C-alpha cells in the first residue's frame, strides 16, 4: 500500500521510520518532509493545509492511507474533506474529524467536554471582550499563580502563567481586547493552577475501541532545570518512572474511559491518536489539555517502544477493529534529546551544515528542522534533530544519546544536558 504522512518534524520522521518497517507498506510519501524522511520516503513540497494539492497527490499516486502529523490540518477539517469527496472517501485518514479536533482547537470546548464527562481537571471560567471586568473579578477569587489560556491554536504560546494579580489582569485585557494572540485569544480560559509533575498519556482510538500506548514525559523549557521560555519540547523519556501500575490504572479508569465514551456520547468522530496532557496532583491524575495528534518529541520515544506493525494498527483504526490488536511494548526505556538552533525559541539562524551523522552508533537521529541541499544536511528550523536511544534504564539510554550528540556538530548547536533530571 502507498501511504502519505503529513508534516515535517521529528514526529513525522519517526512515523515514516516506523511505517517503513511494515510489510504492508511499499511506498511512502511525506509532505513536506525533511532530510530524514528523504532517506526513506519521497518528499513532496506541499503544505499540510493545502487540501487541494494533497487531493491531487493522493489521486495521482493511488495513496490509500493518510497519516496526519500536526494539528492544523485536523482542526481545519482534513478528515471531513476526504470523507466528503467522492474521489477520496475510500482513503483511510488517521486523525479525528473536525468536530472532535476542537478538543485541541478550542480550550473552552475541551474544558466543557471534561466537565460534561466528569473527567478530573482544573476549575475554570472563560471570558471574551464583552466581559473582561468579570474576568478581573474571577481572577480576584483565585490564588496565584494565575493561568490564562488563549482559547484557539497559538502555536504552543497561548498559555500564560503569572504570579502577580495586576499583571494577570493586564495580560487578560491584552489577550481579549488587544488580540495578543490574534483571533486565538478572542476568548480566554482562566484556570485554577495545578501544582504537580506533568506526564503525557497517548491513546489510540477507532471511535469505539481504544488502546493505551506508553507514557512519556517531555521537557518543554529551553533552559536546564526547567527554566526559561517554553519550546515545542527539548527532550523526552518513556516510560515515566513515577507512573506506577496503580497510577496508570487511575488514568485509564478516570480519564481514558470517560474520554472515549464521551467522544461517542457527544458524536465526535475520532480515528487517531489522543494525546492527554496530565498532571499528577498528590496521587491523582488531572487533565491539563487534550491534543488530537501525537506529541513531538514524545513520538520519538513512544513509537520506538511499540513492537507492533504500525500500519496494521492504522488499518484496524480505519476499520474500527482496534479491539483485535494486542499492543506489544518494548520493555526497554527510550529517551530523546532535541538539538536546537542557538537562539531558539526566539530568533535563530538557518542553513548551518550538520556534520557527524555518520558517526552515530546505537542511537537513532530523527530529523526535524533539517533539509538536504547539494548532498549536505542543513538546519532549517529551531528544533533540528532528536537523538533517540534505548537502555535498560532511562539513565543508560540518556547516556547513549549524549555520547552520540558529542559526535554531532552545527554552528550554534544547543541542547539541554539535563533531560530526566527531575525523575
Ligand atoms: P497547555 O498548552 O494547556 O498544555 O499548557 C501549557 C503548559 O502550561 C502545560 O504544559 C503546563 O505546564 C502549564 N499549565 C497549563 N494549565 C495549567 C494549570 N491549570 N496548572 C498548572 N500549570 C498549567
Ligand atoms: N511536546 C508537546 C507537544 O507536542 O505538544
Describe this structure in words.
- Among the domains are: 2-100, Rossmann fold (3-Layer(aba) Sandwich); 123-191, 2-Layer Sandwich (Dna Ligase, domain 1), CATH 3.30.1490.
- With 423 residues, it is an alpha+beta fold.
- The protein contains 12 helices and 23 strands.
- It has helices spanning 10-19, 51-60, 71-75, 78-83, 98-105, 107-116, 132-141, 165-176, 245-265, 299-302, 310-319, 394-405; strands at 2-7, 27-32, 42-43, 65-68, 92-94, 124-128, 146-150, 159-162, 187-191, 197-205, 210-212, 217-218, 221-223, 227-230, 235-238, 272-281, 284-291, 333-341, 364-367, 370-373, 376-379, 383-391, 413-414.
- The protein starts with a strand and ends in a 9-residue tail after the last strand.
- 28% of the residues lie in helices and 27% in strands.
- The strands form 6 sheets. Strands 12, 15, 18, 19, 22 and 23 form a 6-stranded antiparallel β-sheet that branches. Strands 3-2-1-4-5 form a 5-stranded parallel β-sheet.
- Adenosine monophosphate binds at residues 122, 147, 149, 159, 191, 193-194, 198, 277, 288-289.
- Glycine binds at residues 218, 232-233, 291, 295-296, 298.
Rounded mean pLDDT score: 96
- Oligomeric composition of the shown chains: single chain
Helix-strand makeup class: alpha+beta
**Structure annotation, total helices:** 12
**Fraction in helix:** 25-40%
Distance between the first and last residues' Cα: 42 Å
CATH topology of the domain at 2-100: Rossmann fold
Cα Rg: 21 Å
Kindly state the number of beta strands: 23
Could you tell me the strand content as a percent range? 25-35%
CATH top-level class of the domain at 2-100 = Alpha Beta
Assign an overall shape: globular
Largest sheet: 6 strands, antiparallel
Bound molecules: adenosine monophosphate, glycine
Poorly predicted parts: none
What would you say the CATH architecture of the domain at 2-100 is? 3-Layer(aba) Sandwich
Amino acid at each position: 500500500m502507498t501511504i502519505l504522512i503529513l508534516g515535517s518534524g521529528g514526529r513525522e520522521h519517526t512515523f515514516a521510520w516506523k511505517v517503513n518497517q511494515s510489510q504492508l507498506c511499499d511506498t511512502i510519501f511525506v509532505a513536506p518532509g525533511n532530510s530524514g524522511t528523504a532517506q526513506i520516503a519521497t518528499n513532496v513540497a506541499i503544505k499540510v493545509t493545502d487540501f487541494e494539492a494533497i487531493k491531487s497527490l493522493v489521486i495521482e499516486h493511488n495513496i490509500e492511507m493518510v497519516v496526519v502529523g500536526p494539528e492544523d490540518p485536523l482542526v481545519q477539517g482534513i478528515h471531513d474533506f476526504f470523507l466528503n469527496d467522492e474521489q477520496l472517501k475510500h482513503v483511510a485518514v488517521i486523525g479525528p474529524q473536525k468536530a472532535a479536533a476542537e478538543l485541541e482547537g478550542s480550550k473552552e470546548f475541551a474544558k466543557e467536554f471534561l466537565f460534561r464527562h466528569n473527567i478530573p481537571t482544573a476549575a475554570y471560567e472563560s471570558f471574551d471582550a464583552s466581559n473582561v471586568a468579570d474576568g478581573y473579578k474571577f481572577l480576584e477569587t483565585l490564588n496565584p499563580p494565575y493561568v490564562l489560556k488563549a482559547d484557539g491554536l497559538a502555536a504552543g504560546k497561548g498559555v500564560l502563567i503569572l504570579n502577580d494579580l495586576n499583571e494577570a489582569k493586564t495580560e487578560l485585557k491584552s489577550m481579549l481586547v488587544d488580540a495578543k494572540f490574534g483571533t486565538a485569544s478572542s476568548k480566554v480560559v482562566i484556570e485554577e493552577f495545578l501544582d504537580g509533575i506533568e506526564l503525557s498519556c497517548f491513546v489510540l482510538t477507532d471511535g469505539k475501541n481504544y488502546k493505551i500506548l506508553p507514557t512519556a514525559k517531555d521537557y518543554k523549557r529551553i533552559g536546564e532545570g526547567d527554566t526559561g521560555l517554553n519550546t515545542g519540547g527539548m527532550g523526552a523519556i518513556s516510560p515515566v518512572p513515577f507512573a506506577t501500575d496503580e497510577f496508570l490504572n487511575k488514568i485509564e479508569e478516570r480519564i481514558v474511559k470517560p474520554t472515549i465514551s464521551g467522544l461517542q456520547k457527544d458524536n465526535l468522530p475520532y480515528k487517531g491518536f489522543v494525546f492527554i496532557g496530565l498532571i499528577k496532583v498528590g496521587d491523582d491524575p488531572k487533565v491539563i489539555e487534550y491534543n488530537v495528534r501525537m506529541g513531538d518529541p514524545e513520538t520519538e520515544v513512544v513509537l520506538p517502544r511499540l513492537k507492533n506493525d504500525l500500519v496494521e494498527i492504522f488499518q484496524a483504526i480505519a476499520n474500527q477493529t482496534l479491539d483485535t490488536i494486542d499492543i506489544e511494548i518494548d520493555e526497554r526505556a527510550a529517551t530523546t534529546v532535541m538539538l536546537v538552533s542557538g537562539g531558539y525559541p526566539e530568533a535563530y539562524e538557518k542553513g548551518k551544515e550538520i556534520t557527524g551523522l555518520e558517526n552515530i552508533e546505537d542511537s537513532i537521529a530523527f530529523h526535524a528542522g533539517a533539509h538536504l541541499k547539494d548532498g549536505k544536511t542543513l538546519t532549517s528550523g529551531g528544533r533540528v534533530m532528536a537523538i533517540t536511544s534505548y537502555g535498560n534504564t532511562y539513565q543508560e539510554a540518556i547516556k547513549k544519546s549524549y555520547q552520540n550528540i558529542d559526535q554531532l556538530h552545527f554552528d550554534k548547536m544547543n541542547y539541554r544536558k539535563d533531560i530526566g533530571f527531575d525523575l
